Amino acid sequence: MKKEYDLTKMKSRKNPYASKLKKPVTMRLSEDVISYFKKMAEDSGVPYQSLINLYLRDCISQHRKVDISWNQEPNN
Q: Domain limits of the chain?
């Protein structure tokens, strides 16, 4: 191994992982949702934002769909 390397002749190339970098977004989440993930983060030692990302990634991989239909109560 050399003591020094001359990096001035090195060719640059694009980062192959650039398309997979995370994009910052602003979201409004309920306090109970944030508390849930922060508690889980504390227990697991993983940052809570990473846990939210992992959960959403799992939803993608499992092709989960949210049911947003409203239950209607019968009129009395």
A: 29-63
8 A C-beta contact, residue 40 and residue 52:
no
- Kindly report the backbone phi and psi dihedral angles of residue 8, in degrees, each rounded to the nearest multiple of 5, phi listed first: -70, -25
User: What is the per-residue pLDDT across 8-66, written as a single tens digit (0 to 9) for each?
Assistant: 888 888 877 777 788 889 999 999 999 999 999 999 999 999 999 999 999 999 999 98
Tokens of 55: 């959960």
Written as six digits, the tokens of 9 are 């002749």
Query: The pTM is what?
Result: 0.63
Instruction: Note the helical H segments in the chain.
Output: 31-44, 48-61
Centre a 10 Å sphere on the Cβ of residue 37 and count the other Cβ atoms it contains: 20
Which of 27, 51, 28 is closest to 40 using CA atoms?
Answer: 51
